[in-house]
Structures are given as C-alpha cells and as structure tokens.
Here is the input.
Amino acid sequence: MMRSNKKKHITAADILGNPNYLAISYGGYRHKTRDIQPTISELKDDMKILFAMGVRILRTYNVQLQQAPNLLRAISELKAKDSSFEMYVMLGAWIDCKNAWTDLAPNHEIESEQNAGEIDRAVALAKQYPDIVKIIAVGNEAMVHWATSYFVRPKVILKWVNHLQNLKKEGELSKDLWITSSDDFSSWGGGDKIYHTEDLNELIRAVDYISMHTYPMHNSHYNPKFWLVPEEEAVLSDLEKIESAMQRALLFSQQQFDAVVNYMRRLGINKPVHIGETGWATLSNEHYGADGSKAADEYKSGRYFQLMRDWTNSEEISCFYFEAFDEPWKDANNPLGSENHFGLINLKGEAKYAIWDLVDKGIFKGLTRDGRSITKTYNGSKEDLLSEVHIPPLRTEMTFNY
Here is the structure.
C-alpha cells in the first residue's frame, strides 16, 4: 500500500491558540511614507527573519496598497523554493465610515463607498492564496469611538462578516477560512456599556472568533491608576518598582481579556478569543516618555513582550504582538513619536532588548535586513540600556497632568 506524502491541510483552527505558531503584526515599510512600498526581495528578507524567530502567522491591515498582495507572493515564492518554509496570514480589510480621511466631517452612521472594493480584494487574495490566507479580519479598530477619523457602527462590520460567511456557505471561499474583526477590547463588550448593543451581540454570534486589542502602555497615560507606584512600594529598588509595574500591566491586559470573554459568555456564546494586537513602544517624546507616564523604553518593552508571550502561550491564546519592525511612516512628522517605535527590530537591523536572547542563540546567522546583519541594540550592553530607563511615577507625586 502506497503511503501518501501529502501534507496535512493546515487551518485557522489548527494554528490559532497554538504556541508552535507564534503570531505577529507586520508592516514592512522602511520609509516615512507608504508611497514607497517594500519590494518582493525586502519582504522575503523580513519573512526569513520572522520565520527564524518562530513566527508562523502574520497580521496585515489593508488590501488597498500593494504590500499585502506582494507579501502573499513573497511567501508563496519562498514556499515553492523551500518546502519547509511555513507562514500564514490574517488578512486585514480596512473599513471606514463615509468621508473618512477627507476634509469633510466623518459620518459614522454611513459606511465608506470604498469598503465594498476592499472586501472584494480580500476575497480575491484569499481565493488566490488559500494555502496562506487562513483568516480575514474585517476592519481594524473600526468600531471603537476614539477612532474619530473613521469608526463605523457594528452593523457595518456585521454586514461584511455575514457576506464573507455566506461566501463560505456557497463554496466560493474555503469553509475553513475564519472570519473576524480586530478591535479594541471595549468594542467587543469588555468596557463601557455604550458598546453593548444588539448589533454587537449579533456580530459576536457571526464571527468565527473574537480578535481583541489591549494596550496597557497607552493606558499608563489615559487610565494610570494601575501604573503609578503605590506608596507602600516607594522603598523598593528602581528595578523592583519597574518589575511590579510591569506585572500590573500584564494583569491589566488579562483583566481586559477576561472582560471580553465574560461578556461573550453572558450572551450564551462560547468561541475562541485571541489578542489581535498588543505591544509596548521603546521610545516616546509624548504622553508615554520622560515627561509623561515614563512607560516607553526598551527595558519595559522587553519585559512586556516576555510576560505576554509567557502568559498567552501557556493559555493557548494567539497574540499578534505589535509589531515586527519599526515603521517610520506612522508618525512621519515626529521621528520620536511612539507610533514609530513598536517594532522588535529597528530600522538599523538591530534586535531590541525583547529578543536579545534570539541573537545570542544565533538564529539570525546569515540573515540580513536591508543588507545589515541582525545585531543587538546598545551593542548588547544591559548597563547602557538600563541607564535610559525611567521609573514609573509614585501615586503621591502626580508631577504630570492626567
């Protein structure tokens, strides 16, 4: 009897929540504008680096630009050349309200005319690359009210999720393709009751899993109670104060995750919940830097990365950590803005503190990014790294305005 050499068909159900398939958010932009798209060669270099790091699932954000189709082509070519290369994609379709990103006032009650085309492009790519695209995410932070430029009501997301689920039923898309929306924890019912609507409840019933975001770093400014050092910890060493604050940051994320799970279960629904985005910037000259909550630096970012990976892997939660590489277009007018500094690897090809251990293990040997070998930031000097670390403020100090 002949034994089949055919590889098992890998599905979203196999990889989500599987610690052998680490997830990450990816944008390969090297310049201050997205007008300069990463080349196929640059995308391949990035994929080889991420594969070496154990990453197997990437999250992308839109199919309006060439990056997503080029990325899928790059992965496909790498797979064709090397049968052991494995990478899957959570393909994001960007969703806007009417008048988003224009001089006109956004109309949050009506969706953008662009959305239908975006969904069609995502469908086409999922059909073209069924071996790579395992998830489609309808919208990114498209329901949360602080996304004032573009947010829509849950009924818009529900409409497109139902559309994609119907395409699965009709056989036009694989029945194994999972459909979700990736949004803030509050948008999924984990926060303010203003979000607790029947449209949201229907959306939770419609998606294959919930993809929720949690950002304690941002909340170190906007909701700082958990972050500030309590009076009884004033006697601790600086590193002990930081470690205690990072443990509280982890707990903050865990509580937001649990709040989403609890809301879902109160509806009588039980399906997977994963983290579509979380991260911690390594630099900031705004709310999170030396003149603000003092959260952003490489040491704290590294601790957060470790804590989140340990927790989510042990609980079999996928965590699309934000993000793989620094992207300077995000806050192009402010090079020191936090949005530019969420990557695990900077624009000089240096691995930040979070993954110094991977450099030590030699996993990047022979790999380059933009012609540079992957080395450590601070030349690997932890003493130099710690010299730039800020201690979280005492609750009794309140030296900056919240």
Observations:
- DSSP finds eleven helices and 14 strands in the chain.
- The radius of gyration is 21 Å.
- The chain has one domain: 12-396.
